[in-house]
């Protein structure tokens, strides 16, 4: 009898530093291999093999894999502690049936991070009156950050427009 994935965790949204547990339950696994892999959100062709059965393939103290059995069901749980932004992605539970036959289910992990302004942003600038100036702000965060420019008197400035006094 061919194995099937009977349960996969729901998509998860976690904060930086939290813990995530992704479960995959397989019925009739017999002698087939069950894998946890991760596909990067930004690099769709890049994947990482996290586990092979109940063996973790990556040496990282934040990661663990457990295997629990009940009757003809086996649950594989991938746990990630102290989640970081790089942990965002699609995690696939896969059963390798044959060379061109893989049963797969996925769960997406999104990691929320605080907004940050990066060091390569313009911090201060001195120019002569009438000169053109370009100020740059590099920021990140999840969900996406919105950037507002303010003058010293707290008046909001338009983006991508010339401001004349």
TrEMBL record:
Domain Ig-like positions: 3-95, 115-165
GO CC field: neuron projection
A Pfam family this chain is assigned to: Ig_3
Keyword check for Flavoprotein: no
Membrane-spanning residues: none
Database matches in InterPro entries: Ig-like_dom (IPR007110), Ig-like_dom_sf (IPR036179), Ig-like_fold (IPR013783), Ig_sub (IPR003599), Ig_V-set (IPR013106), Neural/epithelial_adhesion (IPR051170)
Keywords: Disulfide bond, Immunoglobulin domain, Repeat
Aminoacyl-tRNA synthetase listed as a keyword: no
Entry protein name: Ig-like domain-containing protein
Highest classification ranks of the organism: Eukaryota, Metazoa, Ecdysozoa, Arthropoda, Hexapoda
């Amino acid at each position: 009898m061919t194995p099937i994935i009977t349960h996969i965790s729901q998509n998860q949204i976690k904060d930086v530093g939290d813990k995530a547990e992704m479960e995959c339950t397989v019925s009739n696994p017999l002698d087939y291999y069950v894998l946890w892999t991760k596909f990067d959100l930004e690099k769709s062709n890049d994947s990482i093999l996290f586990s092979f059965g109940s063996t973790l393939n990556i040496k990282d103290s934040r990661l663990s894999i457990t295997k629990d059995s009940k009757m003809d069901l086996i649950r594989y749980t991938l746990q990630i502690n102290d989640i970081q932004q790089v942990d965002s992605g699609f995690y696939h539970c896969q059963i390798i049936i044959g060379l061109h036959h893989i049963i797969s289910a996925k769960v997406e992990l999104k990691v929320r991070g605080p907004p940050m302004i990066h060091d390569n942003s313009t911090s201060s600038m001195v120019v002569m009156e009438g000169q053109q100036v370009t100020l740059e702000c590099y920021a990140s965060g999840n969900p996406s950050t919105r950037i507002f420019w303010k003058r010293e008197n707290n008046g909001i400035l338009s983006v991508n427009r010339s401001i004349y006094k």
